[in-house]
Every structure is written in structure tokens, then in C-alpha cells.
Write a structure and sequence with these properties.
Elements: E1 2-8, E2 29-36, E3 42-46, H1 47-56, E4 59-62, E5 65-71, E6 77-87, E7 90-93, E8 99-100, H2 107-116, E9 131-134, E10 136-141, H3 143-149, H4 151-159, E11 184-186
Length: about 200
């Protein structure tokens, strides 16, 4: 998944730096622009990422969903990208995905594996004990939205001079219904907050 920061940029804006070279007057973030949803509908959002998005107002979480309310670079709304939460942060069995409390030495996880999966090699080589600690929210985007916004579909639309996210012969997707005031401008990719990762995109 690729997102780009949309900021409020006054015409007379000039960056001010401190002695260490840090910008002391960063532009306020007014939204995030969806560039594409990557190659897979699965995403893992870290807790810090979710908290930052909530604070900045373009991400919400509730009823088992994480919603990204995205904005075009000119401030017009794109649409809501709704991810279903499959697993929340915590411990999980690599065999059966059962939720496991993770104690300091992993004794609870070891007991679960011994009781229900004794003698079996862990299906996850990176977690040979048979259980793992998930630090973020494992999510999945609905198939229709991903079909319109995946990296290949967006690249094809742009090559054909079409607007990304709108399939030929279909109505534009529903938007999140709010616009940003001012004259937002998109920051270059290097200014985008670190996106969630799933190890594939």
C-alpha cells in the first residue's frame, strides 16, 4: 500500500530550520492520498500508525474495521478504504491461530502447543516454538476496492489516461463526504509517514 501526505501549504510558506537542521514549522497534515493498495489486500497496521492516523483525523477504528478516509492532493475526497481487522495485537498459535496470552518466558504458549500440537514442527519457521507475538493489526481490504486500487490496476488506469479507482462503465466510488479547506498540496513520497507493512508491498 502506498499513501502520500496531503498538507496545508500557504503561498508564502518557507521552511525554518533550527541549528540541528530540523524543520521547526512543519506543514499541518490535513489528509492522506491513496496512491494504490499494493499487490495484496492484506495489510498489517502498527499501533503507532493507527494512533497517529486517529490523531491526524484520516483514520478511524471501530466495529472490527480500520477505515482510511483519503483525500486527493487538491483536497477533494477520494473514498473510504475499509479494512476488516482479522487479528488484533497479541499472542497467537501458529498451528490453529488461537489467541494465547504471552507471559515473560512463553510458558503459556508452550503449554498450549504441547497440549494441542505435541510433536509437530511449527508451520512458521520464524517462530519455531509454535506461537507468535503480533505487534499490529492484521487486516484485509474488501475485494472490490482492492480490485480497483491495486498497484497493477492503478498503473493501467494511469497509462490509459483514466482516473484511478474507477472501473470502466461504473459509477465513481462513494466518497467520505468531507473536503479539506485551504489549498492542500501533496508532499513528495519522502515526506510520507511510514506506511503499514505486510512484508510483501
Amino acid at each position: 500500500m502506498r499513501l502520500q501526505t496531503v498538507v496545508q501549504k500557504p503561498d508564502d510558506y518557507e521552511k525554518v530550520y533550527d541549528e540541528a537542521g530540523r524543520v521547526t514549522n512543519p506543514l499541518p497534515i490535513v489528509g492522506m492520498q491513496m496512491l494504490d493498495t499494493g499487490t495484496t489486500p492484506q495489510q498489517t497496521f502498527s499501533r503507532d500508525y493507527v494512533n497517529r492516523g486517529v490523531q491526524q483525523g484520516w483514520l478511524s477504528m471501530g466495529r472490527g474495521k480500520i477505515t482510511l478516509s483519503c483525500t486527493e492532493a487538491d483536497g477533494t475526497p477520494q473514498e473510504d478504504f475499509v479494512y476488516t481487522i482479522l487479528r488484533t495485537p497479541g499472542g497467537y498459535c501458529c498451528f490453529c491461530n488461537a489467541s494465547i496470552e504471552i507471559d515473560q518466558y512463553g510458558e503459556i504458549g508452550k503449554r498450549h502447543v504441547a497440549e494441542f500440537h505435541d510433536g509437530l514442527a511449527s508451520p512458521d519457521p520464524s517462530n519455531p516454538l509454535g506461537f507468535r507475538l503480533l505487534g499490529g493489526y492484521e487486516c484485509e481490504l474488501d475485494a472490490d476496492t482492492h480490485a480497483r486500487w491495486n498497484a497493477q490496476a492503478v498503473a493501467t488506469a494511469l497509462r490509459n489516461g483514466q482516473k484511478p479507482g474507477v472501473q470502466a462503465g461504473s459509477a465513481p466510488a462513494a466518497t467520505n463526504g468531507h473536503r479539506q479547506a485551504g489549498g492542500p498540496a501533496s508532499e513528495p513520497p519522502g515526506q510520507t509517514p511510514a506506511p503499514p507493512t505486510n512484508g510483501k508491498d
